[in-house]
Fold:
Amino acid sequence: MNLRVWAPNARRVEAELAGIRKPMQPANGGWWQLQTTLSHGTDYAFLLDGEGPFPDPRSPWQPQGVHGPSRHVDHRRFAWKDSGWRAPPLAAAVIQEIHIGTFTPEGTFDGAIGRLDHLIDLGITHVELMPVAEFPGDRGWGYDGVDLYAPHRAYGGPEGFKRLVDACHRKGLAVLLDVVYNHLGPDGNYLARFGPYFTDAYTTPWGDAVNLDRAGSDQVRDFLIDNALMWLRDYHVDGLRIDAVHAIFDRSALHFLEELQQAVTALEAQLGRHLVLIAENDLNDPRLLHPPGAGGYGLDAMWNEDFHHALHSLLTGERHGYYQDFGPIADLARTLSGALVYDGRYSRYRQLRHGRPATGLSGRSFIGFLQNHDQTGNRPHGERSAHLLSEELLRIGAALVLTAPFVPLLFQGEEWGASTPFQYFTDHQDAELAQKVQEGRRKDFAAAGTTSIPDPQAPDTFARCRLNWQEQEHPRHAGLLAWHKALIHLRRTIPALSNDRFDNIKVSFDEGARWLLLERSGVIIACNLNQAGQRIHHRGLKSAQLLLASRNGVVVEDEDIILPGESVAILG
Amino acid sequence: MNLRVWAPNARRVEAELAGIRKPMQPANGGWWQLQTTLSHGTDYAFLLDGEGPFPDPRSPWQPQGVHGPSRHVDHRRFAWKDSGWRAPPLAAAVIQEIHIGTFTPEGTFDGAIGRLDHLIDLGITHVELMPVAEFPGDRGWGYDGVDLYAPHRAYGGPEGFKRLVDACHRKGLAVLLDVVYNHLGPDGNYLARFGPYFTDAYTTPWGDAVNLDRAGSDQVRDFLIDNALMWLRDYHVDGLRIDAVHAIFDRSALHFLEELQQAVTALEAQLGRHLVLIAENDLNDPRLLHPPGAGGYGLDAMWNEDFHHALHSLLTGERHGYYQDFGPIADLARTLSGALVYDGRYSRYRQLRHGRPATGLSGRSFIGFLQNHDQTGNRPHGERSAHLLSEELLRIGAALVLTAPFVPLLFQGEEWGASTPFQYFTDHQDAELAQKVQEGRRKDFAAAGTTSIPDPQAPDTFARCRLNWQEQEHPRHAGLLAWHKALIHLRRTIPALSNDRFDNIKVSFDEGARWLLLERSGVIIACNLNQAGQRIHHRGLKSAQLLLASRNGVVVEDEDIILPGESVAILG
Structure:
């Protein structure tokens, strides 16, 4: 096997193999190579101009953590049992977002395998894993990853990840993986020692940007694209959720995301199975989704933050931070019937005209959710929607997420209104950094008026976020779980709810009376957000049958529906 | 008249009118206003929280320079005599780039009026003026402008500029204006005192970037767009050349350039005359030129740097700096038949894959030149092509520029091989800045091995660059002038040379023998770059007639053409 590493600025590169140093030979384009018999499980590292040893930027496994040596993985050794696997299309998906560390008491890939039946039973089609690339310490959200090719050792490493994907596929679940290409974590990031992986031409919230358009950037782009292809090919992953693409700076004529999409399309043809790319994007830029022939990047979908913000602020009444841009039922109506609320409108929070209409796109290009790890974890105490809303409003939120034209996503435990929070937790080994994170977070929230917040570094903070699977038995939780199951069942069985063209959607509402009707090809979702019951008169209701209601007491009378306070009914 | 200024962060704004201070009233969106009877010629300035007075960011006239008060201009007062004026289309244009300060001994707009007949006689259809916005001091290229709305006082101010545009139009010449929206000059730039005009999120070679996508950026975008519209509407300019758009950073879903194009299109409809936008772009990104329906920004054309670099390096043999990416005849052939040499190819100079194919575009979307102010002025001694090439090679260069599918542009005096250089000159009034510029330039060129360079601040440096109109009489210059005239005449009279579709173009060449044949719908341009004469055999030559030759001794024999050393012939 030929050991290779890109180190264009080094004058001398050595490989350390099982403790023995061997000089590497320079090759084209800043690469160095060594002919060797590296076998599965061999530890190795690199020395640059005598400094190091450093782990391989493309390390497949870091059994001793981010500062330790890399361990070679022979991907051919794993005995996959998912032959013939084909993922269901995204348009038919119901996604659950999962954080491996807190999803189960074990906090491992293998632990998660034991809970797949719950997901199947719920009606989930796709699991989306928060980042699994090696990050410092044992506990973390995963956005501080530094070894982008190495599944986290504390989760079970490469083999564990393969076992989970294989198990998912055998049970009919597709697997999406969250990947972070806009920055690397601050600890254990040796990439800059190897080459121009970063540039100070742009500023990100996490420091220098990843170098995608300056000298040497071809290799950095390939580094990320090869990473994406590795997950899809060697780990059988069905798609990627690309974190914060607004912090991926690239002014090249061929944008990184379009190049990535081209590479994934080529792999798709080679593997003969469908692969998807989903972006998190704070810019409301539909160019990501438009086909390359129309000047777009051709991604499959993007997270619909506007839908979340409109729904969250409407249900909770919250108006702080970015929620100040949302609130009226009109905003929710706008996103339900055209994806984006901010499609060129002025945003008070951002202090600029924001976004662009999603012209020519349909619902399947957007992921809709009532909550995800971000909105939950970025609150001082990690409160989920279930902590903020009455059960009645929670049911309305769930109904809207699961009957909206968007691809629905539930955050782990959302389906039973999990009482466990999702707080920000870290396990930085670098004491100075740990203190900085702690203080930074305290300062952020102090500015917003919150003084007592959990310590991200404390093992307790992490432990508190672990799902409590037993609580599902409790009537409140069991009721919510049944409600989510019923909604998902409806979504997956009624064809009208698969028709995601915005021109097939009609929304009517009364801001004062606080009701909203969502009509989708003959199916009507009627929401009463008023605490008092009310009668809604609407032509579309004529001859509609009640399919599902969040509370007892819903009455349909000719062109009228009578809804109890804070309730939702689905008719068809 | 309502005096208005945008100063969103000020707590108090005063206007100083003819020495008297009056408080302004806050209005919506960070604007301040004052009801007053401001008439043409009134001097005014603003005080922010007691500091100042500062000139108006939108000052129409700075009669005392960049630090002085602004002077009100009533655009309705000028008596235009160009009614009914319509500019010829860009596809039929022959452009001359002009620097007002050095174009004539007077160095003014009025001075330039006296030389328009020369341009008409030459066959020029469009003049393109280097930036005229007020910059510090009397002498400068104009890229240090700080009062973007004010025609430079040393050139003749607003009235002078109008007289020039009016005179051009009456003589049938269209006027293009170079505008700089990527940065402002370092001296006299008070914009940051008024509002968030700049952002440190991006780095440009000139410091902080103009803020086009952060808080408050709507007003900054409007500031630039209103500026563009002012030139087109109030000064009757026919189009804009937008400087260095690769340094315009904007990740908004609606890119600044697309928004600008939308605004110009709307003005076009309102004025009933055609307006063009041309970009200078270092990224070889055809998105600028694609129509909005295809995800593009819809600009009319962009400068074709690849054509210049391929032609310049081929003719001069130079390979330093960015010329290291060019040299072979194959590169010239590639640009002649598809616009871009770097359309995704790896660039050694940039150390990355650069650009994207100009698919779906034709020649009229690119401006072609043998030289412009930049390539000339950025050499240590401001040498023009005429200083670097034999008359024979100069003639070949001119023939290729003027028969290429691109819109040709000649730099002032190029047509007679002007002996005057075009060096870098400034007139910074700030002594520290002046010294910094001087030292910076010395250091740049010292790094490249050139130690003695002209002092940019010295009046002599500027004077040396003034065109010497008398030298046209000299036989060498007169011959070159006649050659350019003949070529332009040919271009404007032979329909084949207006067919700018790349699929109608055939290029054949022999790298070893150093010849190139450019075939355009039956017209053949045959170039012999070899110092020795040679016979070229080619089917397309059969029955072709000699239309024009750069030297005596060209013979056409059936399918052969015999070309003397370093010569070009045009057949049709």
